[in-house]
Amino acid sequence: MGQMMKPRKTEITDKLRQEINKVVNRYIDEGVAELVPGVLFIDEVHMLDMECFSYLNRALESSLSPIVIFATNRGVCNVRGTDMPSPHGVPIDLLDRLVIIRTQIYNPSEMIQIIAIRAQVEELTVDEECLVVLGDIGQRTSLRHAVQLLSPASIVAKMNGRDNICKADIEEVTSLYLDFCTSSKRNTSHEKHTNRMFLLLFKPLCNAYDVEKS
């Protein structure tokens, strides 16, 4: 009875994985099956350590390996857990096997389009003048900061009895919440007399809408 009550192991062992690979390879060679590779997307790849990168190196050598996409916003930094600097925090031997997609900084018009799409997803009404202001804020600070201002601005608009977000709402929340560049500059220039900083995270409103719909 005790053996029956014990939880079963769910981890796939290397031996079982190799046996499955042999069967799949035999099916492919016989023409019984066709392998369609999947896609593995790893965000913030600079957070992986050497053990993870070593495993990925071995996995990529397999004929059954998926298409792997790495994403990172780091330049040259140390590989996590080591003192070895490397581009994007990825070891050179793995980086040499990759092709790097060139990206460009968003211009103001592209930022406005992205903010408008995000506002539509969160079911917010934002006028054109407000989008222009948010695009300018995104250009001066970051696109992420400009998008994050939508949630508090919608709250301010509702407090003022409006359903749409206008320029005045954005200006009010901009005076209340600092971006990381402005905050770091103020802390550096007034390090000895800095008041305690409170960090506030606004959850996207679309999560609340999704819960209500479900």
UniProtKB/TrEMBL annotation:
Keyword line:
ATP-binding, Helicase, Hydrolase, Nucleotide-binding, Nucleus, Transcription, Transcription regulation
Q: Which SUPFAM superfamilies does this chain map to?
A: P-loop containing nucleoside triphosphate hydrolases
Question: What Enzyme Commission number(s) does the record list for this chain?
Answer: 3.6.4.12
Any single Gene Ontology cellular-component annotation:
nucleus
Give compartment(s): Nucleus
EC class of the enzyme, as a word? hydrolase
Hey, which family's this protein in? Belongs to the RuvB family.
Stated name of the protein = RuvB-like helicase
The root-end lineage is:
Eukaryota, Viridiplantae, Streptophyta, Embryophyta, Tracheophyta
